[in-house]
Amino acid sequence: MLVGMLGICFAPAGNHTWVAVSIAVFGFGLGVILCFVGGMLAVDLCPRKATGAAMGVIGLLAYGGAALQDIVNGILVDSAKLVVNGQTVYNFDTIIEFWIGSIIVMTLLIVPTLWAKKNKEHEEDDAAA
Description:
The protein is mostly helical. It has one domain. The protein has helices spanning about 1-10, 15-45, 50-80, 95-129, and strands at about 80-85, 85-90. A two-stranded antiparallel ribbon has the order 1-2. Strand 1 and strand 2 form a beta hairpin. Helix 1 runs antiparallel to helix 2 (about 15-45).
């Protein structure tokens, strides 16, 4: 996902193939994260009786996060706007840093969850033996 975002943000001007491939890589990575976090991980970490509730909470948080991201993106784009000779010019450096930083933070938050799941599986295996 990070590779796709870097490819989108730093693509050579006019290279549509590069941008298309980068968008595909980013979309694939995003789809994997959505399926993994939104489905499998929530179901695996909660008790069997709470599976529906866990999926509902993850869905609600996903919509809230998307709404918050739209607001933050709008604020960042608006703050980087500059009017020169009557024409509006945008500087995307800040928003690119935000997007890349968000992906890094998301990755750092998912890794401990995966370790917790792995440790939980080992404890269940040890208890069953």
